[in-house]
UniProtKB/TrEMBL annotation:
InterPro entries: NAD(P)-bd_dom_sf, NmrA-like, NmrA-like_oxidored. Belongs to the NmrA-type oxidoreductase family. This is NmrA-like family protein. Keywords: NADP. Residues 2-240 form the NmrA-like domain.
Length: 266
């Protein structure tokens, strides 16, 4: 998203707990201003938000837990309201406005409501499955995407997909047109394919099946908790809108799974 905002002519202040980190230096090299902030430290947020027009918000519950996610999201909301932020774009998740029992979806409903309660102009983005789930080691693709996810969800169940770069481009477009997008809640998918279909495209693209490593569900949960397995079970029968029309209306060039795979070194 930072790259897309900079390309669009915005001045970007990127916030990090560690300005000396490799990731922070990469943002600096892109042309962003890098500043220290910690979402557990409201005073640091007040300093970091001062003078800013807009704010992109996202927390990672896999790293900090769901109670901390809600607390940190609330800290961000209060600092944004106190410093006069005029447009918040929230990188959230989920399938609707009702609770599902999936913690990583339900927590984001609480955070979004906190922004609304404080009167902040808010755009909520709900990307569906990231295409990077198929390749990025941080997402455990050999354990989850190609094995446990289809086992619990069903290999032929449709899945809405979006690549991370396209999410960044869409977020940047939200800031460019606040009158249109403030108040919007957008489910985002640029393609709908089952795991079976993705597996077939992968094999066609590479000449081999994607690597899989079966892992018992209980062992997987010992490493990453129960949120993902709860989510996949919900998706086995849960019904919600997976239309790609909204995404392609905002970003006509948003990639399909096949187009994305063609660009990967897999």
């Amino acid at each position: 998203m930072v790259k897309h905002l900079l390309k669009d002519g915005w001045q970007v202040r990127a916030l990090t707990r560690n300005p000396a980190s490799e990731a922070a230096q990469a943002l600096l090299n892109f042309g962003a201003e890098v500043q220290h902030a910690d979402t557990e430290d409201p005073a640091s947020l007040d300093r970091a938000f001062a003078g800013a027009y807009g704010l992109f918000n996202v927390q990672n519950p896999q790293a900090i837990g769901f109670d901390a996610e809600v607390r940190q999201g609330g800290n961000v909301a209060e600092a944004a309201a106190g410093t006069g932020i005029r447009h918040v774009v929230y990188g959230a998740a989920g399938v609707g406005d009702n609770r599902t029992g999936v913690d990583s979806w339900d927590s984001k409903l609480v955070i979004a409501q906190r922004f609304r309660d404080l009167g902040l102009p808010l755009t909520v983005l709900r990307p569906m499955a990231f295409m990077e789930l198929m390749t990025d080691k941080g997402y455990y693709p050999q354990f989850s995407t190609w094995h446990l996810m289809p086992k619990l969800m069903g290999p032929s169940r449709p899945v809405g997909w979006l690549c991370v770069d396209d999410l960044g481009a869409i977020a940047a477009r939200m800031f460019a047109d606040p009158v249109r997008w403030s108040g919007a809640v957008l489910g985002l998918a640029s393609d709908v394919q089952s795991i079976e279909q993705c597996r077939a495209m992968w094999q066609e693209r590479t000449g081999r099946k994607p690597r899989g490593l079966p892992m018992p569900e209980k062992l997987f949960e010992r490493f990453v908790g129960k949120d993902l397995t709860t989510m996949w079970r919900w998706l086995r029968t849960g019904q919600f809108d997976m239309s790609t029309q909204t995404t392609h209306g905002i970003l006509p060039e948003a990639l399909t799974v096949r187009q994305w795979l063609d660009r990967q070194s897999v």
